[in-house]
Design brief:
The chain is an alpha/beta fold and about 250 residues long. Helix content is about 30%, strand content about 25%. The chain binds adenosine-5'-triphosphate (ATP). One of its GO terms (molecular function) is ATP hydrolysis activity.
Amino acid sequence: MTLHTAPQTAATPLPPALPAGTLLRVESLAKAFTLHLRGGARLPVVDGAGFEVRAGTCVALGGPSGAGKSSILKMVYGNYRTDAGAIWLMDETSPVDVAHAAPRQMLDLRRRRIGYVSQFLRVIPRVSALDVVAEPLMAEGVPPEQARAKARELLARLNLPERLWSLPPATFSGGEQQRVNVARGFISSRPLLLLDEPTASLDVVNRQVVIDLITEKKAAGTGLLGIFHDADTRDAVADEVVDVSAFATRPN
Ligand SMILES: Nc1ncnc2c1ncn2[C@@H]1O[C@H](COP(=O)(O)OP(=O)(O)OP(=O)(O)O)[C@@H](O)[C@H]1O
């Protein structure tokens, strides 16, 4: 996965004192894409975006298609560079600005502090579905058999047929791949979990399983930031909806 963070400079802002329980504070965030194939034209996406995510709550990013929801999620995960603003992520004792984190620091923050369920599974050739799911726990140092036991539990809960567990997910259906992706994102207990349309390809039964998993994470104190196109899922899990179109940049 790409990693685009700005180098730390003297201009890096000082960490704010976040109130207890605040896991993420996005401040005055701005982003425009430079379209190199269009002679370097700039496509502004958001300007002045700001919101917070607290432990034990789920914040949904809302707004029409193209408003910038996925772009904001990718900036929080360090996949997209920011043009301005700060993304304060609470680390062990003090906040770190993801927008100015060095790549190595970002990788460390991902391993310890941020889980991410992307819209599509990034398939790794020859790795079984079970190990794709267990990997984030193993990366935290959990013994492989213990991590696989938890992976089996989650895959069973998400009704992925057992015959698929030992196979690489490359040939799985969209909904099967999404369930592997959800299990991979939910297996560890990182304080902040990002969800990019985690139920888009799921049937009603499995959608409800994801709603239950989100509810359990909230009860355990995880903060969640997600995009949910399905209004029923959003209504069931979101404590707050942040309308991203409010941060739209106006064309000159
Ligand atoms: N890598 C990129 N390069 C150029 N433009 C991009 C890139 N990623 C996103 N965009 C553009 O930025 C705008 C916001 O896209 P984004 O995917 O963040 O919107 P969204 O609100 O998540 O939309 P949707 O609900 O349809 O998924 C769109 O106009 C999109 O074309």
